[in-house]
Design goal:
This protein is of the alpha+beta class. The protein has helices at about 10-30, 35-40, 50-55, 60-75, 150-155; strands spanning about 40-50, 60, 80-90, 95-105, 115-130, 130-145.
């Protein structure tokens, strides 16, 4: 989407709905509400976590995303993904939302710190379908991390 979208005047309710959809992605993941999480996504979603994991972006179904996140996040005692500073650009039935995030992951471990925290930015692309905004693309850009970076491997094991 072009920079000219910043000057577009979307309805306040669209901007709220878009920001809330993106925030719900984090909330449902933290609450392990996988069925509700699936309902936020388009039929196929471009998922890009390469800033953290390397590799290439992948295109997945909502269920494949929920299954992957359940396997990863489900191994932690708790997670909290805070999403803030939403900036929303709307062009008709398409939108882009960017926001800052801080994600804390907790796992009791006999050795090492029990916390791993990441911070950075998310960028979502959404499409309005049947009056609802659905996420078609998620790009997470991790810009910093702190704590026990070995926790994800322990949680998955």
């Amino acid at each position: 989407m072009s920079e000219s979208l910043e000057t577009a005047a979307p309805s306040p309710s669209d901007k709220i709905d878009i920001a809330e959809t993106c925030t719900r992605m984090a909330v449902y993941a933290d609450r392990r509400e996988w069925t509700l999480l699936c309902g936020l996504f388009a039929d196929k979603v471009l998922l890009d976590y390469t800033s953290l994991n390397g590799g290439e972006p992948v295109r997945l179904t909502p269920q494949e995303i929920a299954d992957a996140w359940a396997a990863t996040l489900g191994g932690f005692d708790a997670t909290q993904h805070l999403i803030a500073n939403h900036l929303v650009q709307v062009d008709g039935d398409r939108a882009v939302c960017t926001a800052s995030f801080q994600a804390t992951h907790r796992l009791a471990t006999p050795h090492g710190a029990p916390l791993w925290t990441l911070g950075g930015d998310y960028r979502w692309e959404l499409t309005r379908v049947g009056g609802r905004w659905l996420i078609g693309s998620v790009v997470m850009t991790a810009t910093w991390g702190d704590g026990n970076k070995d926790l994800p491997a322990r949680a998955a094991g």
